[in-house]
Every structure is written in structure tokens, then in C-alpha cells.
Write a structure and sequence with these properties.
- With 208 residues, the protein is an alpha+beta fold.
- Helix content is 42%, strand content 18%.
- The protein contains eight helices and seven strands, in the order H-H-H-E-E-E-E-H-H-E-E-H-H-H-E.
- The strands form two sheets. It has a four-stranded antiparallel β-sheet with strand order 4-3-6-7. A three-stranded antiparallel β-sheet has the order 1-2-5, with no helix packed on it.
- Strand 1 and strand 2 form a beta hairpin.
- Helix 1 packs antiparallel against helix 3 and helix 7 packs antiparallel against helix 8.
- The longest helix has 28 residues.
- The protein is globular and about 40 Å long.
Length: 208
């Protein structure tokens, strides 16, 4: 979809234009990237609404999730918009770094339902934050920072993976496959399990 190209292209341009000093300055990096995401949100919102007026998009198209990790020499900065999920693997133990921005996980955050109920409920839930929100209702999440020695592998998964593979199965696949095969096996399992067509996309960073 062309609005997803906007997100990818503008983030790539932002990163390419950074210099080495800026990459080492935490506060500058976070503020600069936050400003860029706000700008991208505005551009995506305007594009989608102009396209709806022209009937190029369906009325229920509203935007995109965004899971982003920026890895420097010793730190990883990450942020999540929507239901893209970031996970890490350390010594065979899998941990989700982010919680989805949807109605199911909002209930979990406010302790109205359990984590297990949120995982089972999320397929019918609605996104509460995403790139492309109305300009007067933008809510940019806080960036988080972790040291690079806190993980061996870092994953970014679309909801097509996390909706179709539970955490136990995901951990089993990661621990039973070598580095070259792990992402392929995860996406294949999600494809086999899906009950409806969905975006099944994964990215894996493996530390050397």
C-alpha cells in the first residue's frame, strides 16, 4: 500500500541523513525521531483521507501499525504503534518488549482481563493507536532503551504472526531452529495456522 511506502521511505531518509554524533546523542535521537513520526502521521492521514474522497481506498482503511528498533553500538531504541510486536530472545528465553495498542490489551493494562484473555481476545479487538490517526489526536508512544547485551536476537512481528502463534509455540520454534531457519519457520507456522488472510511479516536481528 502506498501509505506504507511513505512510512518506510521517510524513515529511511531520516536515518540516512543522521551523522555519527547524532547517533550517539540519546535525547536528540529520540526527539528527532518523535518529530519525524509526527510528521509521517500527518502525511499518512492526509493521503488516506484524500484517497477516500477519490474512492481509491475503502472507508475502513485508517492507517498502519509501526514497530521500530534502532540499534546503535551498545543500545537499542524501540517503539511500537498499533499491533506490531517486538520480542527479544536471551539464552533461549523469549520476552515481549511491547504490548499491542488495541482494545484487548487496553483492558489488560487496566487489569480488567488477564494476559491470557487478552491474547485470545485480540483477534476481535480494535486498534487504539496507529500511524494515520487524526492530526488533532496524535499519541506518540514513549521510546524505550535497552542495552544490547540484554538480548541475543531481536524480532519484529506483524499481527499476522502474533495472532496465529502463541508465546509457547513461538518459543519452541526459536529454540529448536538455527539462526538461518528460525524466521522462515515462524512465518510458515503462522501461515499454516491462519484462519483468514493477514499480513505475515517478520524481521530478525541476530547479534554476532
Amino acid at each position: 500500500k502506498s501509505y506504507k511506502k511513505i512510512i518506510c521511505n521517510e524513515l529511511s531518509d531520516w536515518f540516512i541523513n543522521l551523522d555519527s554524533k547524532e547517533l550517539r546523542a540519546d535525547r536528540f535521537l529520540i526527539n528527532s525521531l518523535t518529530d519525524k513520526i509526527i510528521d509521517i502521521n500527518k502525511n499518512v492521514y492526509n493521503m488516506i483521507n484524500e484517497s477516500k474522497i477519490k474512492s481509491e481506498y475503502k472507508k475502513n482503511v485508517f492507517g498502519s501499525s509501526l514497530g521500530l528498533a534502532l540499534i546503535s553500538n551498545d543500545k537499542t531504541y524501540y517503539i511500537n504503534y498499533g499491533d506490531t510486536r517486538l520480542c527479544l530472545d536471551k539464552d533461549g528465553i523469549i520476552e515481549a518488549l511491547t504490548v499491542d495498542d488495541n482494545s484487548a490489551w487496553d483492558l489488560y493494562k487496566t487489569k480488567q482481563i488477564s494476559k491470557e484473555e487478552a491474547e485470545n481476545y485480540q483477534r476481535g479487538s480494535t486498534l487504539t493507536n496507529y500511524v494515520g490517526k487524526p492530526i488533532n489526536n496524535i499519541n506518540v508512544p514513549e521510546f524505550s532503551i535497552i542495552p544490547n547485551d540484554s538480548y541475543d536476537k531481536l524480532f519484529v512481528f506483524s499481527d499476522g504472526i502474533t495472532d496465529n502463534i502463541n508465546s509457547v509455540t513461538l518459543s519452541s520454534i526459536i529454540n529448536s531452529n538455527n539462526n538461518n531457519d528460525v524466521l522462515r519457520e515462524i512465518t510458515l507456522q503462522a501461515y499454516r495456522n491462519q484462519s483468514r488472510h493477514d499480513d505475515i511479516t517478520g524481521c530478525c536481528y541476530i547479534k554476532k
